[in-house]
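Final paragraph of the annual report: two paired records, presented back to back.
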Amino acid sequence: MSKFYVSALALALVGSGAHAQSSTGVEKANKRYDGSAVNTRFAGSTRLDGGMQRDAFWSEDFSGGDVPAGWTNVDDLTPVGEEPVIFQWSDDPTAVEVAALGHEHMLQFNASGASNGYLWANSDRGLTSAPAENHLTRLTTGLIDCSGQTSVLFSMQSVIGVFDNDASEFVKVKVSTNLIDWTDFFPFPCLVTGASAPPCSRFSANPEMVNVDITSAAAGQQIYLQLEWQGGWEYYWAIDDLALSSLPDYEIEMNYAYTSTTGNGEEYGRIPTDQLPDMMNVGAELFNLGLGEQTGVAVNVAFSDADGNPVAGFDNSIGVAPIQSGETVVADGNINFPSGVGLYNVDFTITGDNIALDLDPSNNSAARNYEVTNDVYSIDAIGNHPDGTEQLQQYGTATWTDNAEAYYMSMYVINNTMQATGVIVELGPATVAADGASIEAFLVDTIDVIQLPATVSNWIDGVTSGNHEITAADVAAGTVGLQFSQPVTLSPGAYYAVVRVSGSGTVSTTSATDGEVYILDDNTVPQPAWTSAIYLPIDFNDDGTEGRHSYTNGTAYAIRLTSNTQVGVEEMTELAGVSIFPNPTNGVFQISSDRTDMLFVEVTDALGKVVHKTNFSALATVDLSDLAAGVYSVAVSSATERTVQRVTIK
């Protein structure tokens, strides 16, 4: 089951009864998938894409079929008679799924060499509640010769998820020369539990390319390495391709970049022209992994349109002071930006006096996209993200125990008075048009939801869209427009666009006949707490007391606010001019369109599971040859239009 997380401005959620349901019906209190996917803004300590491992003077790829000989593998805290948490060997990347608890990016270990062997520790253990005692997992190597090294970098591929104990404090890489005295290093400095503020998260990237400078304890020594994890009821930790190498002279990297029209961290995917600020807050986090000081460093910010054409007149450079070895800095600035209607790509690139000597240029850049619209405001950017970065989840009426009716909401910062006419909702693939599946939209003040006692009853101007029964046409379109009974005047401030969804609250793995409503959650870009929120009518803590009902959860629900006077179900028209060929196919087919704008493709199997996503303009080639034979649904959509066609794989 999932736990919701409350902003530090409110209170920490302890022992919440806000539980999610799995498709198997197994209830795991407080831990299952809640939509908080990997934090793509902070993708790891460094990538270094093999450059340093090629020069490694020591390495271990776990291809030997077991924990290496001469290593120790213990749990020093779990009481005798209870299952200890120790590392185990596997060459099946999906072996970790039992401890992922439905979190899609954790369902397998994506290290490049995982199929040749890796180690992982299962903190979840299939427990139904948190254990009384922590585990203290310690994996210790044999003696490693670093006596000839003047600098030592530890690296590995890894993935980890935490729930009770912050990895930033309780996961360590330790170095010793005598197995008694240890020096601690912390490989996951931004991996924490609870309502983490971007760029931090409770899940690492998969894989996270971890690099830790252990020179101070290892250079010129014979050493032992130890990986230590003190956990309670966490998920799992998988490791592969451990290596020791010399630090490069020059290696600077960009950990993440951001574009915010509020200056408070929110990154809106679509912004109406009349809600644009005068300046955009942009920036990037930089880390100097090299031995040498980085001087003359700046972050170049460049804009291009949907076709990749540079937008002249908006290039900027944000300079920073010299960066010392091991230092992290943020380049931040407020800049002019293109504000004409259209989709824009923002490219961030590091420059500096020593950039030509940089070991791995591939980690010197990042990208963000945003769209300026006439009348659509969305925190999500589904369909508009840079290629290969989009991550989606879904929430709905069968997500939370005892809550077949739930309220999902996205926050909108209004800079100038807006006449809100309704919302547009992107439906999740698990939506089923049947009796009881309905949706209603309205607006509330953010303070009503965040402060206690929370309520969703104070509709702005008393206006709603009325209750809309989900139809087969809605499901086929993947989008539903909900027009308010009358326009709502929003003065400058912050508001939630809320949808109340109702359904049967059941989950079936063999058929989908019970009415359910799911909405998409864009997990691609981390957002501040309370940017998306949920209200549960039925909420009890584990001790039986009443819960707080409102929680910050998810990242960017696809609940889009609009001022279009024609918004409504009838406006969600068929996307014309799309063809798929050949069909049937051996798995490879092309999608063509007479449209020149960016279109979004989502392929789902017969059970509604998303198996492929991509973006394209005019023509795309899709390769599903690795999937089983059968009939698949191919949805092609723009921001307001959609078509669904069936493809048969022979």
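The closing record of the year follows.
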Amino acid sequence: MRQAIPFGKYLLLDRISVGGMAEVFKAKSYGVEGFEKVIAIKRILPSMGEDRDFIKMFIDEAKIAGQLAHANICQIFELGRIDGAHFIAMEFIWGKDLLQIQNRLRKLKQAMTPAMACFVVAKACEGLDYAHRKRDPLGRPLEIVHRDCSPQNVLVSYEGEVKIIDFGIAKAASRSSRTMHGVLKGKFGYMSPEQVRGLPLDRRSDVFALGTILYECLVGDRLFQGDTDFATLEKVRNVEIVPPRQANPSIPEEVERIMMKALARDVESRYQWAGEMLADLHRYLMGQDQVFTAKSLAAWMKEGFAPELERERQQLESYKRLGREGLIAGVPAAEAKLDVIEHLGPAGQSEDPTVLGGPSFDDLVPEGATQISDAEQIADMHAAAMAASSAVAVDSGWGDDPPLPSAVSGEVAAPDRRGDDHDFVDEGPTTIFGDELGDAPVLPAPPPPPRVGRAT
């Protein structure tokens, strides 16, 4: 039987991933009358326990996402502290992220249909539009901007659900932690031009990212990809776009129009709300002879990932044999002090940020750079580029190494060298899979655990 680790009232089953600042576990939660549920636990590493800035960011992530209750945003249950270690208990999603889906399509020599792409992005629009419009109990706008919308942060469950994850660097009016000046945060290829320029950000920055995702789903290639991070940022800044139908003539004209409006360089020319983009996507979908639905998406997921799904079903069965006795048997259970800071349910949602210390823009400017005017002007411009961001997170998008299949809302994606089914790859922060870190429990590395959630 699989070894489990007691953690307060939870039982840690497997460590999914670990980054430089936090680790994510698949876990079990228990209740009365035999109630049990597989969830995810994100815990700050012992080495980061004294980093007050990171702890504030971690708490902000939970508090921002904990105010959101929507079918297309992953759920967060609790923010707590055990033996001085802060943790977030959140929904575990059985399925795959959009990047993995794109890679699987390439392996199968298939293209994502316009209907499938528009359906997935429409659901992402629903979740983000809800977050953008969210108000506090007094009716004041929360002014939430995700700021890290990317294929890795769009999850699709085996039941055809679409969930936005990772509010780790989200902007909100109430956010307490500060941005580290001069540190770029986010995935470079999915930033908006105003984000790169260091201008104030609002919901329309997320709309631009949605346009980028839709483009890449249908064109099958990166929209903004330079030879260096600096070159990628410049492509975003200048909005250098190959027209979608030039890259893929099978894209419907109406879908190209939606794409290009979302990708307008001028924020006033874009969709002003994700809900406006959603309306146009729905109009296109409803006009098709066969309407694409969540059932259609679920059918593709179960067929496209059939081997993984069977393996994960077996894994789930093994978890069922781990009951409450696991809290007192096997591994000695320390007298852990559980300090619940906040219950963020019943439908607060969140994800795990892509956590890694990032370079300053100075590190990205090539010697003798003159793309704009001079390197000093460029550095000044980009030093403020992520002034709205508060997580120490840098990810330049796809690169040379494939990603670790993300099995939970927002765990740190990492290279996965165990398979050959990833053609598009994530240059994200490197995750050490199953690596021992200090007094963190070391658990057996499972097969790539996908994420699937409850049906909406």
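The chain has two domains: 5-93+305-349, 95-301+357-395. This concludes the annual technical report; the extension proposal builds directly on these records.
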